[in-house]
Structure formats: C-alpha cells, structure tokens
Design a protein that fits this description.
The chain is of the alpha+beta class. It folds into 2 domains: 2-84, no CATH class; 95-149, Beta Barrel (OB fold (Dihydrolipoamide Acetyltransferase, E2P)). The protein has helices at 2-5, 9-26, 30-47, 52-84, and strands at residues 98-101, 111-114, 117-123, 134-141, 144-149. A 5-stranded mixed beta barrel has the order 1-2-3-5-4. Strand 2 and strand 3 form a beta hairpin. Helix 3 (30-47) packs antiparallel against helix 4.
Length: 151
Amino acid sequence: MELLLGMTATHWLIVGLLLLTLELIGSGGYLLWIGGAAIATSVLARLSSVSVENQWFVFGCLSLLFTFFWYLYQRGRDKRGLERTGLNQRGRGLIGALGTTLTSVSAQTGRVKIGDSSWSARCVDQQEVEAGEQVEVIEVDGTVLVVRPKD
C-alpha cells in the first residue's frame, strides 16, 4: 500500500513502459492505452505538484478516455472495412470478368462459366445471349451474376 501512495513521476514512467512492453507480447491493444495513460500521468507528475491521490484519479480517467476513444475510432474503421472487403463475397471479385454462357441467358435465368465455376446468371436490359457466347459480368445480385454480351 505504501508503494501505491508513494508513486512518483519515475514510477509512473516505469509502469507505463512496462505496460507498453506487455502490449508487445500481445494483449490486443488494451494495454497500449493504459500504458499511454501512465506515461501521461508521469509527465503530469513531473511538471506539477499533483498529490498522489489525484495522480491515481488522473491515471484512471485517462485510461478510460484513451480506451474509449480508441474503441470509437476502431469501431468506425471496422464498419468501413466490412463494407470494402471482399471477404466471403467471391462474386464481387468477378465484376469485370469474362465468361462463356453454358445455356442461353435471358433477363430471368441462365448459366455462365467463369474460370472453373458455373454461375447462375441473368442478362441486363432484357437482352438475351445464346449458349457459347462471351459475356462480361457487370454486377452481382446475391448469387446471381448480371451479365451483358461482350462487344
């Protein structure tokens, strides 16, 4: 208990660096912000004559604030990242790809071969493409490719 009530700027710096070192081992980012709060508290303790009790209060508040702001930042990045990723959305990677029709493709139904896969397809703008012709994928609607005849 005496150690906790006798924290100096040097102690806060050591705690901060120790937490940052533990973060390198792999805590998933959480110790980074607590370590940053400890280092910020060290700077505050070095530059002013704040009591030890207030240093602990500042450390707690900064830990919560740093962690909360990182959470908000990361949550926004995660949401934007999910919209841009092609993970588990194989069809999105096919936009612009060329394929060959296996059956005639109308505005309602048909089959297209792209690479080694066969996909359900429909033609854009009420066009119809006969079997064996080249088509280009212009859109993906669920698991159905929207295609147009290759010019």
